[in-house]
Amino acid sequence: MPSHSRTAGRALLAAASAVAVVLASTSCVNFSEEDQAADQGSFTAPPTMQQAPEQPPAPPSDDQGGGPPPTGPCVDPDPAVIATCLASTGGVRPADSSGRSTYVAERTTGKIILSKRYGPQRAVAGVEVDASGDGGLVDFEMSPTYAEDQLIYALITTGSDNRVVRIAPTGSVKPILTGIPKGATGNMGSISFASPTELIVATGDAGDPAAASNPASLAGKIFSIDPNVADPKPDIRASGLGSNVALCPSPGSDGQLYVADSGAPGDRLSLVGPRGLQTLWSWPDRPGVSGCAVGKDWIAVSIAKAQRLDTFMRPAAGSTSVGKPSPQDFRKSYGAVGRMTSVAGAAQMATVNKATRGADVKSYDDRVAIYLPKAGEDLT
């Protein structure tokens, strides 16, 4: 593991502390019953979204109340790792303001796992998915008022389509938007709340680049919906996206939204505008863009196939110049990283070693770790 990775891990990880959360029941459902949705509750009134203030990470410690740290095949000695022995992962979200605990989707099992270093790990929700190809439990978002309603929104693959669903604390699953094209590949997408009444959805091209440019198709698009109403009408913001589409919203209040995807011209990082994309950087050699996260002064893009992280200087207001990326080699540490999210000035990142050809799968894979990306070229 590179020295800057060890330093970042030590500087970012705190003593394991209990995180008070309300856990939802784990449940798998039948899609024929789900589509009826007659007894699964009504839509909630639009909540008021509030962002918790960003807290700096606390000093690291593996103290377990005076006892020795646990041992076994699921223990990663890296102190920055906060979840281990996961099935192949999808989306990841911080479970507390410091980033010392995490919610992570197991793409292939349909479970959302809550974890902190040394556990315990619990499944807080589950949904039946079709995990063939790159589909499954692709991404998820907690309701803006999750502490009160314990609702979870998810982008999933079923036997017939990709769809946005809402998972209730009882375990029942209600379709929000169905009919997003499904393919043998190109199902990986992303969701993110812009406001309590605006859920941003990014979809892959389902293996059909022509569909991504077709205005009649929801494949390869970025659009918004109001998840609080029945049969929401998608408002298209961008089209022409490829596969492995990952949204990375700004953690601040500026509302900036970035997206990484692998399209026809190659892999790219783009800024999402009101009605289109502005490419900031592209990788013509297609190294395998798989996720992204945004900090105060950096944008990090995970490159799963190449097993590295490329980090850029975040452009100043009114600028689209990100400079050259600063690469961090993960081949001897984390391996292939997929989805990422920003928290407390750093990033949580979920590995996808079990799903990446050529990756060295460890006994404790797949994992979630806290990491401080190294900023790219200084543009000032």
Automatic annotation (TrEMBL):
The lineage of its organism: Bacteria, Bacillati, Actinomycetota, Actinomycetes, Mycobacteriales. The keyword Oxidoreductase does not apply. Pfam families: GSDH. PROSITE patterns: PROKAR_LIPOPROTEIN (PS51257). Residues 102-229 form the Glucose/Sorbosone dehydrogenase domain. Keywords: Signal. It comes from the Bacteria. This is Glucose/Sorbosone dehydrogenase domain-containing protein. Residues 1-20 form the signal peptide. InterPro entries: 6-blade_b-propeller_TolB-like (IPR011042), Glc/Sorbosone_DH (IPR012938), Quinoprot_gluc/sorb_DH_b-prop (IPR011041). Residues 33-79 are annotated as: Disordered.
